[in-house]
Design brief:
By secondary structure, the protein is mainly alpha-helical. The protein has 3 domains: 72 residues; 102 residues; 81 residues, no CATH class. Helix content is 83%, strand content 2%. Strands 1-2 form a two-stranded antiparallel ribbon. The longest helix has 52 residues. It is flat, with a radius of gyration of 28 Å.
């Protein structure tokens, strides 16, 4: 459990409170178990209810803190996945001009617009200047600290290329070309998916309710329409589609579209 907390703390970029996270994850379950046992054997209803409320609050705190830590790590990974192309566009000309690796990182820490990426480069500089590490070791530690596979691939490629070749800029340019092509393909696939989702939304959330109301109005002279024990008249169908069906479909469509957009 301690290793898991340390990993979350490291992947968050040292922004989480490790002591609070360790207490919540490690000790709250130990507190909840005796409270649940005490509540089961408690004869007084009021005290039992109080104990159960305390257990419920502790469970909510446990889940909330753990979810916050996981979301923080995922959000941090998203910063690097989205912004690493711009970072490469800045770093490659510097490397091509024979700038040293520490000078490149120092420049990136100054000019990087994404605060999460800039902060990571500042941590690398701190490890070199104050921690006594060489720049290669500091970058390797950064790879372990950043929860982004794209960042890990690029920085790992940078480290290996810097050790065996002088054409680091050319190697990174090939990686940049691959990332741009991959981003373009993802954008094209996302555009097609969004077009398909909007067509489904148009049919299911807009056209289908209108069709159901028209069918109810058309078939009403033939007698009542039953949906199980429920008798459907045009007014009831209109209320159900407008107040229940359409909002639910809109919410589901929003979740699908938002998840598709967040995958870019």
């Amino acid at each position: 459990m301690s290793n898991y907390v340390d990993r979350l703390y490291r992947l968050s970029g040292y922004t989480l409170n490790a002591d609070v996270l360790r207490f919540v994850i490690a000790y709250i379950p130990l507190i909840e178990v005796p409270l649940v046992i005490l509540a089961v054997f408690m004869k007084f209803v009021v005290i039992r209810n109080v104990l159960l409320i305390i257990v419920l609050v502790l469970i909510i705190d446990y889940v909330a803190v753990l979810l916050y830590a996981l979301v923080r790590v995922k959000t941090r990974a998203g910063h690097f996945d989205r912004g690493i192309i711009i970072t490469l566009l800045t770093a490659i000309p510097l490397l091509a001009s024979n700038a040293t690796l520490i000078d490149v990182i120092n420049t990136l820490a100054l000019v990087e617009r994404d605060p999460e990426i800039a902060r990571e480069f500042r941590i690398i500089l701190r490890d070199v200047r104050e921690g006594g590490l060489d720049v290669i070791s500091a970058i390797r530690r950064s790879i372990e600290r950043v929860p982004s596979k794209v960042y890990a691939d690029i920085m790992g490629l940078l480290v290996e290329s810097y050790r065996v070749s002088s054409n680091v800029a050319d190697v990174l340019f090939l990686k940049l070309d691959y990332l741009i092509r991959n981003r373009f393909n993802r954008l094209r696939s996302t555009t097609q998916t969004l077009s398909f989702l909007l067509e489904i939304y148009l049919v299911m959330a807009l056209l289908l309710p209108i069709l159901l109301v028209l069918m109810a109005i058309t078939l009403s002279p033939l007698g009542p329409i039953y949906l199980g024990p429920l008798q459907l008249d045009p007014t009831l169908v209109l209320i159900i589609t407008l107040l229940i069906y359409a909002p639910i479909m809109g919410y589901v469509s929003y979740i699908l579209i938002d998840s598709t957009m967040s995958s870019i």
